[in-house]
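Section 3.1: Structural characterization of target chains.
Under the original work plan, the team committed to producing a structural model for every single-chain target entering the pipeline before any wet-lab resources were allocated. The record below documents one such target. The sequence was received from the expression subgroup and is listed exactly as submitted; it comprises 110 residues.
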Amino acid sequence: MSGGRRRVPHPRPAAQAQKEVARMIGSTPEDLTVDPVVDPDAPTRSDDGFAVPYLRPGQFISLVHWSRSRDGWRYSTILVQYVSRDDGRWNVLLRGEAASLSRGEWALFC
């Protein structure tokens, strides 16, 4: 065992790594493009002051519904499979059946 400190390689800068990958596959760095997961310039819609996150069709999401009762406020949550949404509706699968829920009544529960 040597008494010296062990050298830890520093991560390569992204540009250098991109050049190395391009060289390995016989391409140029300009040919390598990466599609962003989320477009930072895309407009976001907000529900009650909270930005709606990126949702994928088939993803399970929880929705919450608030209602007034004699004892105060009550809430209900449901687990649904997301299909799509528009300005006023959540289009989901609820227990395997297609359903369209009002976004004014049901909010994303994170």
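The chain has a mean pLDDT of 73.
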